[in-house]
Amino acid sequence: MGLYLVTPILRVVVATGDRRILRYLIILWFIAATLIPLFHLITGFGVDDNLFMFGGFIGYFVIGVYLMGVHFKTKTLKRLLVTGMISTIIGVYLMQFPFHSMGQYAFFTYVTSATVVLTAIAMFKLLGKYPKDWPGTNHPKISRVTHAISVNTLPIFFFHVIILETLNQGLLGFKISFLEIPLAIEIPLITAVALFLTLGLILLIKKVPVLRTLIG
């Protein structure tokens, strides 16, 4: 809801076309959301919460717009992707075993982890480089599904947590326990189930005129 409330302001910032301002906003967010928590984790010292006003998900909300005008070599993106993934794994391992710290969560949380931010940037740009004739993209049914997902990524992001909690608590008549399924099965299963249940819910909501205007 906070993102929705601040969207009119961000829309004006983006509409000005001043990439320096947008870049400045992203830098402030990156420092506040990732570097400051990392500094606190390593040193034990923190800063006043009022020092930086931009944190949370706001950076992800605008960084995609900025990256549309930034070009990377595919080789660079792949290296960044691998580096981000390996750094995340190493950070989690070090916090969990040698140090036995709850700080392990700081390295794979998508709000506070610098390594996850870098990995997400690399993945975002790599997905934009896939061939237009990728297998299946010309199939009518697959194209409709991928289009439906792509135009609803924001509401999917907002609603998927509700679906995950619903599945975990068994409110639909069946329960998927995230702690009892092997990870190799759990991750793709929950991803697919949550994605398509959330997409189905959103498509139903869009049938209602009043609700359609709320989720875009």
Tell me what you see in this structure:
There is one protein chain. This protein is mainly alpha-helical and 216 residues long. The chain folds into two domains: 126 residues, no CATH class; 76 residues, no CATH class. The chain has nine helices and no strands. It is globular and about 50 Å long. The mean pLDDT is 81.
What's the short story on this structure?
By secondary structure, the protein is an all-alpha fold.
List the helices and strands and how they pair.
Elements: H1 2-15, H2 19-43, H3 58-67, H4 74-96, H5 114-127, H6 140-150, H7 153-169, H8 183-205, H9 209-215
Helix pairs in contact: 2-3, 4-5, 7-8
Q: What is the global morphology?
A: globular
Indicate the percent of residues in helices. 55-70%
| Count of all domains | 2
SS-based class: mainly alpha
Rg value: 19 Å
SSE string, helix = H, strand = E? HHHHHHHHH
- The percentage of residues in β strands lies in under 5%
Distance between the termini: 13 Å
Oligomer: single chain
Largest sheet: none
Secondary structure tally, helices = 9
The averaged pLDDT comes out at 81
Question: What is the number of strand segments?
Answer: 0
Report the uncertain regions: none
